[in-house]
Design a protein that fits this description.
Length: 311
């Protein structure tokens, strides 16, 4: 019997779950963002403007779904900018019509952040932790966090500006401690540069969401169920376990790799992008497994950690 790690049924929808518009410090309107992201094959965009929650359901059509969201920040004000650490979190509303986030105090303390996450969840939000390296945060800051559904493992804006957009090591540290959440790649785009510029912060990081349909409830359910993966290029078409063997199918890649909570890794590798499928035997002891595939340009797709009791 097959155990699907990514759901068998449904459709993959390409999403940018971190996006800024003229409602905060972005340079494009939400209407312009819808147009350019649809042209690049995106079906879902979370308009996560800074500290403001604005529904944009008027942008919804058969091929495009806006997610009602907000990015909040809580900084360590005992240290002057730009050396102070900061928590940045996106909150996604399960009710697309909400236009007010919860009241909260900006106190730089993990217990305070956990209280925000808890109360937001009670109000119908799910929480995503953003760009640990840009935020100057270490494991001491993010390991205490509870109740996250997603951890940002790639952020285009941070990578373009400072070459510190990756957060896959921090995610590994998080799940190695026993925490469970998905991983996302986002743009965090502000669009201060031309879209075709090498400095553009759009269209480089995305999340593939497997949902039954392109509806608000279906996509939010998929996010809550962790039915998604992160990518900067390659796509994963199928991922399941049968008879203690993992089967994975991808777009053409040069490397497909299985990671664990130990030094045990398994991989297949070629000098060009000719790999599209592989199998891995689970003939070893592990707490979780997760998968990465990469192309010859260094673009990667990363799944979440799947723990033993899920497999």
């Amino acid at each position: 019997m097959r155990k699907y790690l990514l759901p068998k049924e449904g459709t993959f929808y390409k999403a940018n779950l971190h996006c800024h518009s003229t409602h905060s410090d972005g340079k494009l309107t939400v209407e312009q963002l819808k147009e350019v992201y649809k042209k690049e094959g995106y079906s879902v965009v979370a308009f996560s403007d800074h500290n403001v929650l604005i529904p944009h359901m008027d942008l919804c059509d058969e091929e495009f779904l806006p997610i009602t969201s907000i990015e909040i920040d809580v900084s360590d004000n005992t240290v002057p900018w730009p050396k102070n650490a900061t928590y940045h979190l996106n909150f996604f509303s399960k009710d697309p019509t909400l236009d007010k986030f919860i009241d909260f105090e900006r106190i730089y303390d993990a217990d305070v952040i956990n209280d925000i996450i808890r109360r937001a969840k009670e109000r119908g939000f799910i929480a995503q932790y953003n760009h640990p390296r840009w935020s100057l945060q270490t494991a001491c800051d993010f390991l205490p966090l509870e109740g996250l559904f997603a951890f940002e493992v790639y952020n285009t804006g941070c990578e373009v500006d400072m070459m510190n957009g990756w957060g896959e090591y921090e995610y590994e540290t998080f799940v190695m401690s026993g925490k469970r959440c998905g991983c996302v790649a986002t743009d965090d785009n502000h669009n201060s540069q031309e879209l075709k510029s090498p400095k553009s912060d759009s269209f480089k990081g995305f999340t593939m969401i497997k949902a039954k349909e392109l509806s608000y409830d279906s996509v939010m359910n998929a996010l809550e169920n962790l039915d998604f993966y992160a990518s900067t290029g390659p796509v994963i078409r199928e991922l399941y376990v049968k008879d203690n063997t993992v089967y994975i199918e991808t777009s053409p890649c040069s490397c497909i790799l299985l990671r664990t909570d130990s030094r045990i890794t398994k991989s297949t590798r070629e000098e060009s992008d000719v790999l599209t499928k592989h199998t891995f035997s689970l003939d070893f002891n592990y707490e979780y497994i997760r998968f990465e595939c990469s192309d010859i340009y260094g673009n990667k797709a990363l799944t979440r950690a799947y723990f033993k009791d899920e497999i």
